[in-house]
Each structure stands twice: as structure tokens, then as C-alpha cells.
Amino acid sequence: MPPFLHREYHLSSSAVLQDIVIGLSDGLTVPFALAAGLSGAVQSSGLVITAGLAEIVAGSIAMGLGGYLAGRTEVDHYAAELAREHAEVRTVPDTERREVQELLANMGLSPATAAQATHELTQDPEQWVKFMMKYELDLEEPDPKQAPKSAGTIAAAYAVGGLIPLSAYFFTATPQQGLLWSGAITLLCLLVFGFFKSRLTGQPPVPGALKMAATGAAAAGAAYYVAHLVNGVRL
Amino acid sequence: MPPFLHREYHLSSSAVLQDIVIGLSDGLTVPFALAAGLSGAVQSSGLVITAGLAEIVAGSIAMGLGGYLAGRTEVDHYAAELAREHAEVRTVPDTERREVQELLANMGLSPATAAQATHELTQDPEQWVKFMMKYELDLEEPDPKQAPKSAGTIAAAYAVGGLIPLSAYFFTATPQQGLLWSGAITLLCLLVFGFFKSRLTGQPPVPGALKMAATGAAAAGAAYYVAHLVNGVRL
Fold this sequence. Notes:
The structure is a homodimer. The first copy, chain A, is mainly α. Chain A contains eight helices and no strands. Chain A has helices at 3-39, 45-91, 93-107, 111-121, 125-136, 146-170, 175-200, 205-234. The longest helix of chain A is centred in the N-terminal third of the chain and has 47 residues, at 45-91. Chain A is elongated and about 75 Å long. At the A-B interface, helix 1, helix 2, helix 4, helix 5 and helix 8 of A face helix 1, helix 2, helix 4, helix 5 and helix 8 of B. Chains A, B: Pfam families: VIT1. Chains A, B: Keywords: Membrane, Transmembrane, Transmembrane helix.
């Protein structure tokens, strides 16, 4: 595989993984913590399940649709900036040429080499604009198909992540029993997920696993405490 | 203000705004949708408030801690890559020099100018590594203070966003009345927030406002439907 193809492949594969990681991180944490919180306040597993499923649906749609709209915005933003750069290269070429020269000087080129390089880079307007987009504005052309794919992946990962902690309440008689099983299953999943997530991003995996489990435990503990407190006041 | 300071200022101001936007987007949507969903399934406003507060706490901690850990990981990742580049420049300078030359040729420089530029850029190892970090790896040095600041901003914005839809249930007698007021207040807030968010990012504000409100309405509608369905089966 030629190097640039290899790089493209690598980038697109990690885009999907990144979306799965985003969805799972929140899906394993927030519905787990909500269900744990309610377990400290209500007597019916049915209520915990109802609230948990409502949260999973709400979270999946908010994250999925949010991801989709953010992706679409990125595509629009790139198109707008591209049109602006094309116009600037046409209408104020001297200003734009000076920007290229400054950019090259900031990289560390001598004035003479920067001038020669500027001369070469600004011969072809297409190449000139491409250079400005990438090195002045730090924008890569987004793939328009990425947004719907991202949305679906994030939403599905959130739902899968959320159903794991909730499943415990299906098979237990009381919310308290559900919480014990849910906590055990979810902390185990968070440890495994944190381990592989850290491996993927080249971080030390054991501290990564512990951090992920600690985040879930902190969220669940705080939600339990608050629900218990509110319950004592209101119900 | 010198141009680079102006740019730094601009970047750091938009980092805070970005965090507020991230927190508010989810905070206005998910707790709203969860409360709406439960309104279709339970008879007690106290239960909706308990679940809503548990969700806000869980979501704030998950997002805030998640943001903090992601920021810390970014700092570690940058340090690891920096060390690796320094080592490579020392141990395989010819390979690294060829990478600089290829990068410059890909920008559109002639072989002669690319060779001269490579010669200049690789004189000082510090400047050489800086060039590789920015232009080969596309990494900017992250500010280590950014992670805790981000975490706090996102968590606070999520909590503020979540308390707006929930507040309606404090002042109404039944979940059904709460839902009406909550829906009205939240959709208005989503329209206003979507409008200004789009203005900030240079997108058309009216479609942006409508998209934001539609996301919230879709999440709430789906959560209501699912909670109603589950409720019919279980309770």
C-alpha cells in the first residue's frame, strides 16, 4: 500500500473507533449512574428500567444527532473558508502572498528561501489555496459521508453501553439487588473498555482502566447520594 | 496587540466558549428528554425531579471528568511524541531529513528549493523537532492548565443547561403540567442557544436555531414514547 493510502486507511479506521469510544464512554457511565441513583430512591425495578431506557433513547438521539449536525457544520465551514480563500487569492493576492511568506519564515526558513518558496507556491492558484487551507487555517477537507456514519456509530455505541448496566435490573427482584449486579458488571466493563481504549491511543493501559472505572464509580456514587437526598426531602 | 498574541487570545477565548457550547448542548437536551419521558410514565413530579437531578449529577461528572482525563491524555500524548521525535532526530537523522524534504515537496516546492529549505530547517534540532511536531504530526502543544478548566466549564454548563428544563417540575402540581412548561421553556432556550451558537461559529443562525430545537424535540419525543411503552408493559 502506498504511504498516503496507508495513512488514509489508518485515519478512517480510527475515526470509527473514536466514535465507538465516544459513545461507549458516556453510554457505560451516565445510564449506569442514573440507574444507580434511582436505586437509592425508589422501590420498583420497573421505574429504574423506565427511566434508564428513556435516558438511553434521549442520550443516543442527542449524541447521534449532535454528532451528525456537527459533522455537517464542519463540511459547510470548510466550503465557506475555501470560497473565501479563493476570493482572497483573486482580489488581494499581495496580502495573501505576504501571509505565505510569513508562514514559511515562521517555520524557520531564511528570507531568501522563503521568498523563492513563496514564488513557487503561488504560481498555481489551486495549489496556493490548498496551502493556505492546510497550513494557515489548519483545515483538512472533511468527508461529507462521515457525518451520518459518525452519528449512527455514536448513537449505537451509546445504546449498547447503556443497556449493559441496565440489564441487571431486568433479572433482579429489587432495585437494590439490581444495583449490586449492575455495579459489578459495569465496573468490570469499564475496566476492560478503559484498558483497550488506552491501548488504542498508546496510553498506559492499567492506569487508563482504573481512571475509566473511577469516573463511572464517581458519577454513580454522586447520583446515588443526590437521589437519596432529594428523595428524603420530596417523596 | 501583536498578531500572535491576538491569535492566542482568540483561541483561548473560543476554547472556553466551545466548552460552554458542549456542556449546554447536552445539558439542555438530555435531562429535558429524560424528564419528558418520565412525565409520560409516572404520576409524581417528585420522581421526575429525583431522576432529573440524578441525571444532571451523573452527566456533569461523566462529561467533566471525561473532559479532564481527555485533556490530560492529550498532554501526555504530546510529551510522548515530542520525546520520540527528539530521539529520531538524534538516531535516524537521514530518515527524518527525508521526511522534511517530502513534506516540503508535497506543499508544492521544487526539488531544489525543498532541498535548500530542508537544509535550513534541520540546522537546529529544536526547530527541526518543532517543525516535525506541527507539520508532520499536526500536533499543537496543549496547555496543561486547559484540562481542569475545561472539565469545570463543561460540567457547570451541563448542570445549568439541565436545571432549566427541570425547574418547571418544581413549580407545577403534576408531571403533565411540568412537561408543558418544561417543553415551552426548553424549546425557547434551545432556539436562542442554537441561534447564538451558530452566530459564534459563523453558520446561518436561523437554521442553526431550528436544528438545535429539533434535536431536543426529537430526543424528548422518543424518550416519551419509549417510557410510555415500557410503562405499559412493566408497571
